[in-house]
Amino acid sequence: MLFRYLFIFLVLLPVKAFALIEVDITRGNLNPLPVAVSPLAIDKSSKENFKKILKKENLGSEISMIVENNLKQSGLFNPLNKEAFLQEAEIANLKPRFEDWNLIKAQALVTGKVTFVDDKLRVEFRLWDVLAGQEMMALAFTTVPSNWRRVGHIITDKVYERLTGEKGYFDTRIIYISEKGPKTNRIKKLAIMDQDGFNNKFLTLGNELVLTPRFSPTNQMVTYLSYFKNLPRVYLLDIETGMQEVVGDFPGMTFAPRFSPDGKKIIMSFAKDGNSDIYTMDLENRIVERISNHPSIDTSPSYSPDGKYITFNSDRSGYQQIYVMNSNGKNVKRISFGNGLYGTPVWSPRGDLIAFTKLHKGKFYIGVMRTDGTGERLLTENFYQEAPSWSPNGRVLIFYRETKTNAKGEGFSAKLWSIDLTGYNEKMVETETDASDPSWSSILSN
Amino acid sequence: MKLSKTLKNGFLILVASIVLTACATQKKTTTGQLQGDVYTGSDSVEYLASGVPDRVFFATNETVLTTASRETLRKQATWLRKNSDINVVLEGHADERGTREYNLALGERRANSAKDYLMTYGISSNRISVLSYGKEKPVDSGSNPLAWSKNRRSVTVKAN
How far is A300 from chain B (nearest CA, A)? Predict the structure, then answer.
């Protein structure tokens, strides 16, 4: 008898602890969680003040729309139509009437409040479990009003983390190449935008060809390839100050740059006399080291997040394939053995996977494999697509896709796309112009 | 019923094979500008001087010079020996069917195989510089094998 009671008690406890909602992001989510994002409450004088500074009629609802859009884009959440909301924003934030939210089938509820305090923007927000009738999280922070879009992204990151158990990726930026003009004479510019496509800025004028920008995983530095004065070289750019410089003094083309995980080195290819090998340059002491030494083409290097290994592609087997080596260039091992050609390997920030581009029978695929080459999984197939870049939490890949032209050579376009690691939730990322070579920043608010 | 089904299937296969052979032969006749998949036509070709073509073409993923390419480069070498004040840039290119970074390396390798050949015909290496554009500057915007063959090239450009 006693045993039975004890048993029931033990089973009940964990069930109760798990009653709070949770979203599983490890599988394709075909039933996104219904969530209500209430407009953030705002008092009259704060509203007037923000309107004066930011030209936004109601900052509270603007910020909630950012959160709503982010959650929707993630594919894991289904934000409910605000017109169905029964409760006023201000009252909901104090104490929601859960029956009302339950009625419209919301399982989670986000409420909050923005105020204008000492020329700053103060925001507080809460996440509620509607079914359990409990508060799951409450946070408040203060920032400059011009950061209002970031406030929406930070709230989304917190909500996402609380509900999925993993870090978000919303308070981030994408650096990419903006493209214009006919295919035979493209004008390319370095450009940057928020992860949701807002705040787009051009960083170069388009006078010289620029390619493959990559964010530092630790700060707001970018490395990219520029054909300035017709000398293709790797450059380093501080996007806060606009300062830029050539990386290393190489007597030939340097390309395919990426940062080391600590942001202190740049790894890249250097091409000389028809041979491309992999080199690193230490950004502090400027010491250049040769990492690979093989008469084949070795390029597209990418470090593992612990900095111990490097993955790259090489045609030393006769065709382009993916390899892994120690960070000192020793112990080179081929890891791609499927049919077709493999390129652009990028190590996941979680460390467990390598994303790649695959070319097989005239089709291009974006896929992932384990770091020993097993468990290859192709996520998407198209006429042309390449260059995956990981979201900082390692759950989403962004890449670019080009269209096939018609018989007259017309109809070319290049666009950014994103897809979940699960292979679901594939969508085009809106950009002002055509776009390619995307690279995801780390989270800004860390 | 069963027989007619078998017949029908057989017929489909027959039709399919006719269509396929038609395609195969058509390819050969309409793309007379290709040998293997190396471009042999003169579309997009410019001349450094009368009778001296400015470019050579490559097979997919290849950097080896064909017989025709070597002949073009010998003409270029002869012309360069006569015009010893002229320096050149060899611009190497790839088609759009490869990843961007690999194609940059491939373009560099193609331009260098042209450079090596010019050097064996007595042109000093300090008169020749090499510049790879990868797949960034196609001459033909088509997404078809003929267009790609024109884009896999090394072009000799006067530098002064």
Answer: 6
**Does ipTM top 0.90?**
yes
Q: Please tell me the distance from the alpha carbon of residue A4 to that of residue A9, in angstroms, as a whole number.
A: 9
Domains in chain A with CATH codes = 19-24+33-164 (3.40.50.10070), 173-440 (2.120.10.30)
pLDDT 10s per residue in chain A (446 long)? 334 443 333 333 333 344 467 777 666 667 899 999 999 999 999 999 999 999 999 999 999 999 999 999 999 999 999 999 999 998 888 899 999 999 999 999 999 999 999 999 999 999 999 999 999 999 999 999 999 999 999 999 999 999 999 999 999 999 999 999 999 999 999 999 999 999 999 999 999 999 999 999 988 899 999 999 999 999 999 998 989 999 988 999 999 999 999 999 999 999 999 999 999 999 999 999 999 999 999 999 999 999 999 999 999 999 999 999 999 999 999 999 999 999 999 999 999 999 999 999 999 999 999 999 999 999 999 999 999 999 999 999 999 999 999 988 899 999 999 999 999 999 999 999 999 999 999 999 85
> Residues of B with CB below 8 A from A210's CB?
none
**How many structural domains compose chain B?**
2
Q: Do A255 and B106 touch (CB under 8 A)?
A: no
Q: Identify whether residues B43 and B2 lie together within a single domain.
A: no
Residues B45 and B5 in one domain: no
Domain range holding B8? Answer: 1-30
Are B123 and B152 members of one domain? yes
Whether the CB of B75 is below 8 Å from some CB of chain A: the reply is: no
Of B63, B98, B138, the CB nearest to A184: B138
- Three-state SS string over A92-117 comes to HHHCCCHHHHHHCCCCEEEEEEEEEE
> Is the same domain home to B37 and B26?
no
Q: Under an 8 A CB cutoff, do B108 and A274 touch?
A: yes
With a CB cutoff of 8 Å and minimum separation 6, the contacts of A289 are A279, A280, A281, A282
Indicate if B84 and B112 belong to the same structural domain: yes
Q: Which two tokens stand for residue A403?
A: 């269209």
Distances (CA, A) of A441 to A216, A218, A397, B79: 7, 9, 12, 52
Candidates A297, A317, A321, A383: best to mutate against B (most CBs of B within 10 A) is A297
CB < 8 Å from B in window 262-281 of A: 269, 271, 273-276
DSSP state of A45: H
Chain A, residues 416-445, CB within 8 A of chain B, namely 437
* Nearest Cα to Cα of residue A425 among A15, A30, A53, A136: A30
Written as one letter, the residue type at A187 is I
Q: Nearest Cβ partner of B100 from A185, A362, A387? A: A387
- Could you tell me the pTM of the whole model? 0.90
Beta bridge partners of A191: A176, A202
Q: Is residue B18 domain-shared with residue B49, that is, in the same domain?
A: no
